[in-house]
Specification:
- By secondary structure, this protein is of the alpha/beta class.
- The chain has 2 domains: 153 residues, Quinone Oxidoreductase, Chain A, domain 1; 151 residues, Rossmann fold, CATH 3.40.50.
- It contains 12 helices and 15 strands.
- The chain is globular.
- The structure holds NADP nicotinamide-adenine-dinucleotide phosphate.
- NADP nicotinamide-adenine-dinucleotide phosphate binds next to helix 2, helix 4 and helix 5.
């Protein structure tokens, strides 16, 4: 039997303990499916939280993690017209990608523009796509408006800054390291607040002035998320899409944002969530295809420049896993299969 290399989480637990490289049978595509020989897959913090049982879904174990991939179609099932063997594609919301071959429904793969690198393609349909949705369909940030965001140096955050520079909205960017400030400004961020040595609510008031900021996105949660919602102008809207500050906690009751009720009530604000997986399953097909296509075009035209990933051979997956959550880790760890 010909086998492939798969990174498998044998049980629920800490990724450094439960992930192992296994040899598994190469899957066969059924009707309406294609098989992809995978070239590169990113390691996201959310992949690790899934393994820890702290994400929005918990798979059955053993499981192969991974939510994105780029590779080349190497076999087609029946009824997959329009796709050809040898075509380079990315997968849309297909899970279990940390392995050499992935089988996907034909409607869940998308050809990659010729000039696009594997690093960019492999990372496009989680973070940049989220930035496009949050600033577009979700908050409809208009030219001239402020958008306040936390963890501005994240891949999502960088995409938001680039979208702001392109579309003409202003970004007020919160980072936790002073050394990250220059990078944010160089990328086109309008203003930066550093929590290392600045008071967030005071600085938001200084920068945004009398009109304040009405739209915000937060992926840190905890006290910072609470401060962001409290700093918004009356009727302001905050979308919470991550909880980086709480990731290491094991007590589910601690995964909270202590929102200041007085400001929420009397300034009639909204705090709501966003999760790409729900968007991928609930959005009407036409609208989903248009938003994904727009993201691809923005990357292909150079408006969205996804930070270059750090390629790591799949055998060294342990390095990729620890890098994914290391402070100031820079580009995404990318598991590569030669
Ligand atoms: N809801 C959704 O559908 C959805 C979709 C995509 C992404 N996300 C979420 O978006 C977030 C960013 O993801 P990403 O892949 O873009 O991140 P990333 O590229 O890995 O970067 C992580 C960033 O977060 C900062 N950070 C980490 N822990 C922090 C903390 N405790 N306080 C403040 N800042 C912190 C890091 O700052 P340093 O540079 O200082 O280390 C870094 O800039 C994650 O929470 C992810 O789960 C959610």
């Amino acid at each position: 039997m010909i086998t492939m290399r798969s990174v498998v989480a044998d049980t629920l637990g800490e990724p450094s303990e439960v992930l192992h490289l296994h040899a598994r049978p190469i899957p066969e595509p059924g009707p309406g499916q294609v098989r992809i020989r995978v070239a590169a897959v990113p390691v996201h913090a959310s992949d690790l939280h899934t393994i820890r049982g702290r994400y929005g879904f918990t798979p059955e174990f053993p499981t192969v993690p991974g939510i994105e991939s780029v590779g080349v179609i190497d076999e087609l099932g029946s009824g997959t017209d329009g796709l050809t063997a040898g075509q380079r594609v990315i997968t849309i919301g297909v899970t279990g990608t940390w392995q050499e071959y992935v089988v996907a429904e034909a409607e869940r793969v998308l050809p990659v523009p010729v000039g696009m690198s594997n690093s960019t393609a492999a990372q496009l349909l989680a973070n940049p796509l989220t930035a496009v949705i949050l600033t577009g369909d979700e908050l409809d940030v208009r030219p001239g408006e402020w958008l306040l965001q936390t963890a501005a140096g994240s891949t999502v955050g960088q995409s938001v800054i680039q979208l702001g520079a392109h579309a003409g909205f202003k970004t007020l960017n919160v980072v936790r390291r002073r050394s990250a400030v220059e990078d944010i400004l160089a990328l086109g961020g309008t203003a930066v607040i550093c929590t290392e040595d600045e008071d967030v609510r005071e600085r938001i008031a200084d920068i945004a002035g009398r009109d304040g900021v009405s739209k915000a996105i937060d992926c840190v949660g905890g006290q910072l998320g609470a401060d962001i919602s409290r700093a918004l102008a009356p009727h302001g809207e905050l979308i919470v899409y991550g909880a980086l500050s709480t990731h290491r906690q094991t007590d589910p009751d601690k995964l909270t944002i202590p929102v200041f009720a007085r400001s929420l009530i009397y300034e009639t604000k909204t705090v709501r969530g966003f999760w790409l997986f729900r968007w991928l399953t609930e959005t009407p097909k036409d609208r989903m295809a248009a938003t994904i296509d727009r993201t691809l075009q923005l990357a292909d035209s150079g408006v969205l420049r996804v930070p270059e990933g750090q390629p790591i051979p799949v055998e060294k997956f342990g390095e990729a896993v620890s890098l994914a959550e290391a402070p100031a880790h820079g580009g995404k760890p990318l598991l590569v299969f030669d």
